[in-house]
Amino acid sequence: NSPVKDMRCPYCSAAQGRCATTAAGRSVTECTSCGRVVEERQSQPHHLFHLRAQDSPLCLVTSDLPTIPITATATAADQYKDEEDPFEPTGFITAFSTWSLEPYPVFAQSSISFAGHLAELERVLETTSSSSSSSSSSSSSGSSVVVDNLRAYLQIIDVSSILGLDYDITDHAFQLFRDCSSATCLRNRSVEALATAALVQAIREAQEPRTLQEISIAANLPQKEIGKYIKILGEALQLSQPINSNSISVHMPRFCTLLQLNKSAQELATHIGEVVINKCFCTRRNPISISAAAIYLACQLEDKRKTRAGICKATANRTY
């Protein structure tokens, strides 16, 4: 595996990868930090024959001066000296060349690089299928597990892309789904709802400010059904109850950022909401509605022109 320097992993933002080959023989680039597939490459060989000119020199020696005849009076020593003299003119060297075209083989190879999302999906499914095949004996049950994992993976990816979640939350949600599917039976149960419940649990563990209503709209599932499968997930995995994701302190900064409120208005809205919660003034209202009302009051006190419709849109709340 050779390192690749010019690369940025979309999962962990690492800047170094390595070239690897999948089980199917595909060339991919894996992140050295998290091991996920970042890029996939397809190479295609091309066998070409290039016509190249070939020059074959042909050298001929022609005399430039007439040779001096050897006189009878010259001694044998003088003749030997003249033959060994390097400065004796021996003639012009004329070079001729023969020119011809000859085909030369050229072995070229082109490569196309594209995103490795499908290769990463194959890697996840290969890991899932290998673990399921080792735990289950029948091939039909193993194939159904792979199909369920594929449906859950696509559901989690779709909802996460709509909500703009990090890849770590997505991976943790899929891991929660796999653990739950191996601990309980998925027969006559909604795979998409369970995958959404796993995503809700991962969001709450990461303390990401996302309301159940937002997740319900993104997943196109009713909140009641998601809450039902959240209980199933918690009972199957014996999960501890995380920090309430609907608390005012979690969502208030994001709501104020969407409404472009300053720090003083945000602090005032948070203070109003916490007082209402602590004094139990609105026991039948959820924290999101209380947050919307607190923002409206803070805007009135801070003289910020924010409409009720704009606050409802930012807080994903219809009434407050």
From TrEMBL:
The lineage of its organism: Eukaryota, Viridiplantae, Streptophyta, Embryophyta, Tracheophyta. It comes from Davidia involucrata. This is Cyclin-like domain-containing protein. GO terms for molecular function: TBP-class protein binding. GO terms for cellular component: nucleus; transcription preinitiation complex. GO terms for biological process: transcription preinitiation complex assembly. SMART domains: CYCLIN. Transmembrane segments: none annotated. PANTHER family: TRANSCRIPTION INITIATION FACTOR IIB, TRANSCRIPTION INITIATION FACTOR IIB-RELATED. The keyword Transcription regulation applies. Signal peptide: none annotated. Keywords: Transcription, Transcription regulation.
